[in-house]
Amino acid sequence: MIKTLFTIGLYDKDTETQIIKAGDAKKIIANTLLNQYNIFAFTMMDAEGVYKMGSTGNIIFEPSIRVEIASDADIPAAQICETLKELLNQETIMTEREEVNISFI
Known about the structure:
Strand content: 35-45%
Order of helices and strands: EHEEHE
CATH class: Alpha Beta
Number of strands: 4
Largest sheet: 4 strands, antiparallel
Radius of gyration: 14 Å
Shape: globular
Structural class: alpha+beta
């Protein structure tokens, strides 16, 4: 199986503040994956990204959502990222892809 993991920050790329609440962002993500990309199952988890602003040196703690998808075939990860970046006004979405041995017992 192939595991794809997206990490999506929730700070708006233009205002650098959270405009879309986590619950609303999860609804947008779920609707996009289920209805637009026909991905029938996935897991969403709350996370917190941490980074240092290059311009100010400030350390930022950004609320984030991690989405884990296990599938038999590759999913259109780049297309999904572009769609979610637009819907959630994000500059980037971290994406990981890994071939794994997953069992549903």
